[in-house]
Every structure is written in structure tokens, then in C-alpha cells.
Hints:
By secondary structure, this protein is an alpha+beta fold. It is 16% helix and 34% strand. The strands form 2 sheets. Strands 1-2-6-3 form a 4-stranded mixed beta sheet, covered by helices on one side. The termini are far apart.
Amino acid sequence: MTTAIGKTGVIGLLRNGEGPTVMLRADMDVLPVDEATGLPYASKIRATDRDGKTVPVMHACGHDIHVAWLVGATILLPQARDTWRGSLMALFQPRRRRRKAPSR
């Protein structure tokens, strides 16, 4: 396993003999959205956006399911080693930091 990819990302490699290498990627990031569900597990996190403003953030764009299916694949594929050959690279990728656009 390789950690600290883009600071918080992780790559896991599962080798299963000779064969192709396949990479599966799940992106992990948040949106600047205030979670107003009132649920006890609702996000209360605040972060600094690229303009230096403090904004609420939450996972609201499907990335949680991206991570869930990749975790599932990394659990199921080792259990089915007799049905495939090669290597699986599982990349859990953090958001890419965007540069602030130059002012004109």
C-alpha cells in the first residue's frame, strides 16, 4: 500500500499472478454545501475555499458511493482469485486542489 497520495490518498495493489494490470479509481472530495438535514451525523465541517472564505462542506455528489464500490471490489476480488489473473490497483484519490484563477 502507498499512502499520502495528494496528502490523503491511498493506493492498494493486489497481485494475482501473470496478467494485465487494471486500476480502479474512486475520488474523494466534498462540496461547499451546508448540510441542513438535522440528522445527528450531518456534516458540521467548515473549510477554506480557494478564495480564502470559510464555507460549509459535505459529501453530496455521489463520491461516497464511489468509495463504497471500490472498497467492495477490494473485498470481493481477493475472494474470487481463482476467476481472474493479473494485478488490481485500487486508487482512492483525494480532490485535486484547484489553483485560484489569475485576476484580470
